[in-house]
Amino acid sequence: MRNSSISRRAAGCALFAVALTALAGGCSDAGPPSSGASAQEFTIWDPYPQFDNSSDWVKLLTKCGTDAGVTVKRTGFDTTDLTTKALLAAQQGNSPDVLIVDNPVVSTLAEAGVLTTTDDTKVDTATIEPNLLAAGQLDGKTYGVPIGANTLALYYNKKVLDAAKVDPTTIKDWASLTAALAKVKAVGKKGITFSAIGTEEGSFQFLPWFWGSGAGLTQLDSPQAVSALTLWTDWLKNGYAPNSVINNTQTTSWQEFASGAYAFAENGTWQLANAKKTGFEYGIIPIPSSTGGTAPAPTGGEFVTAPVRDDTGRYATSAKLIACLTSSDNAYTTDTTLSYIAATDAVQGKQVAANPDLKVWVDAVKAAKGRTSDNLGTKYPKISEPLWGAFQAALSGGKSPQDALKAAQTTAAASTK
Amino acid sequence: MRRALTTVAGLVLTAAMLFPVYWMINVSFTKDTDMRADPPHLFPSDGTLEGYRAVLDQQLPYLGTSLLVGLGTVAVTLALAAPAGYSLAKLRPRGGGVLSFILLIAQMIPGIIMAMGFYAIYLRAGILNSVAGLILADSTIAVPFGVLIFAAFMSGIPEELTNAALIDGASRWRTFVSVILPVSRNAIVTVSLFAFLWAWSDFVFAATLDGGGEHQPITLGIYHYIGNNNQQWNAIMATAVVASIPATLLLILAQRYVAAGVTAGAVKD
Amino acid sequence: MIYLGAFYAYPLYRNLDLSLRSYTVRSFVHGGAPFAGLDNYRTVFADPTFWPALTRTVVFTVVCLAFQFSIGMALALFFRRHFPLSATLRAVFLVPWLLPLIVSASSWSWMLNSESGVVNAALRALGAGPVNWLTDPRWALVSVIIANIWIGIPFNLVVLYSGLQAVPPEIHEAAALDGASGWQRFRWVTFPLLRPVSAITILLGLVYTLKVFDIIWIMTRGGPADASTTLATWSYRLGFGSLLPRFGPGAAVGNLLIVMALVCGLVYIRVQRGQAR
Questions:
Q1: How large is the ipTM?
Q2: Do A85 and B171 touch (CB under 8 A)?
Q3: What residues does A369 pair with on adjacent strands?
Q4: Which residue in A176, A250, A257, C164 has the most C-beta neighbors within 10 A?
Q5: A15 pLDDT exceeds 70?
Q6: CATH of domain A152-299+374-416
């Protein structure tokens, strides 16, 4: 303060410039090898912040570490943060040894060169169900192992259906479902709730209907696709589904169902534990396809992956950790904790034996399909975004299903060229 | 009588303002099955304490960290912003306009971009996942604000006041400490308040820079209830309620102090 | 200055760099993104989302500022009269600021929910039809504006109140003796003295409002079908909102926002100069 303002400013500017160049220069360096983890400490990142150190999940991680002869440092991140965090960490050469991420993110991270293939790490994927593994495959290479899977089905409220005299077993196709909704509405109850929010979550919920119509993601404006979207918009128009679906997350939609006023809810495997807490009798049927039969629903659930590290010697231990986490016994425990369906036939059998209610979910998972499958990979996000734009526009009344999907196809085609 | 009426009006206004907060409290007591009841329940008559049980079991250590981060941020912000605001307002350095400009632009950078930049710096500096690092990062939200506020308030201080001190032979620094600071108490309180509030409610920096830390602030504690497929809203809201109680008390105390200070000053004049 | 350099210039530089190169997720991690000049900006301008988003940004900002400032000023004047509990109530007014945005924004979307929201329940009780606050393209922007005004009031209140405290009471008394009415005193005495503080409040409010994204994002995700997308939420959606980050265009939109703030900053400095003279 005592110096004249001019010299102070000059000094400041010089420092400013130095700081700037140092940082800019530092940015282009590859960065020093990570010193954060000692040879014996292995880092694991997962998207399960709800589990703290006393949970079975963290105990399992610790145990797998002990078995592999290392200590495990685990951090749980919010799932939306984790992608950015993983990319940032990779940019700075500070990736974790084991990274557990949501399955559609795997292809993005693989494309970014962040993940090793299972060939590099020698992780065995032979027993994993191929339709589940497909979400982690890109150009013939596999980038991770599913820890379990979840998917969507229709929960129903038995009391509401009884009141409307609807037998859930007769719902086999769209026509019978819509007829059931009409009966429910006629007795003054609410029909169906789902999530059509303008994010990936909404696309996830729309896909069973989209695929169930016979449409494919490479042609968003096909007549089948239009029929799927028309199904949704008609439900809204006729009051079979509430207007709030346009802004519902899957949690919100579940809360609506849990209030007991709705006949059906499209929701995921993970709500099973909550369904028992609702206090009313519920049942589950698979999502029907347009002309009958089970519609392919998208697979959800996370993959265990091993990010690229400078020290390739660590891969052997990482592989041991991954094998431990996905081994039959441990997968059974983990999937039970997460309320997921296992990714291998053997463990699925074990789950059904322990809890026959899971049968419908195991079937649904077997019929399910990865969003990034069909070698769509990182094209999927570029298709999903116009898709959710389309159903948002159609449901809120801005555009007809036909026009909305046509616009979406134009955008998607332009960005995936 | 009029004063009483004014108080009533104040109470009504406050109630209107706080209705969303009341709604949050209401939800924090609500059972999962009643959350989307139609029509909504105005009172959690058939409520649950589940949310609070979860919070009190798990969240108390987070509160301490938040408090530490909040107070630390206030200290750092005041130490940096008050002198800077003073020099901007009174010493009028050349390029002062440019500097205010940079400060303004600085405010525009999206938090997440700042956080990404810090991540790289912090990793090299080795202060990732530390409370000190978080304080430093949080202060970056408040410092530009602080400087601009101090500059705006201090430019209103009459020149005669400082000139008198300077003529008496006090240095610039002395003048600043013993003349300027005492009369800028309002600005100090304002800036401290906001620095504290920002640090208290910051989410982006905490998530990016302290996501793996031993000591995490309360905003990250909320993550416990946001799973990747569903969220426990009563626990989330309960966390927010529990988190805001100590901070509210602190605010009320601070406001008392300010009000007292101001009246005392007025009497002396 | 070092502090400034390290903590502001670097992120700013990163943002510029991001916006001028054609980054893919791969080159984001491994470096070597080709320099693309203004391509990202061209992409952004050509996007059909751009102009509507710009219009909404302007509407959002102007409406929010007008209401926040006038309500904040009115409340500041109100609290200036010392009455029992005034200090406590003033402190309680700040509570909205204490809440993490995810919580306050969620509370609002809860209240405005078209099926089970308390606002619609109240409307029904008054005999009015329900409004699809968050799901009707005509109302979504209004809803987020209301929520944002609510969040911005404490800021305006506190800053303006402190500003009022700095106005010496003698001036007021003098004006009152001269027979000035309440409004005249405010208009001709208080307000001019409050000008520097008001200007900075509006300017800062502008900057904060321009970059608001969390509230909108949590309440509507910019939807339905972009009806409440502003430049800030759009920037976020491009950069982080989908599975495949598009950092380049995201950063470009962010920089456009910075330019907008810059223009307003220039106006501010002009005004300030005018005052100094």
A1: 0.76
A2: no
A3: A298
A4: A257
A5: no
A6: 3.40.190.10
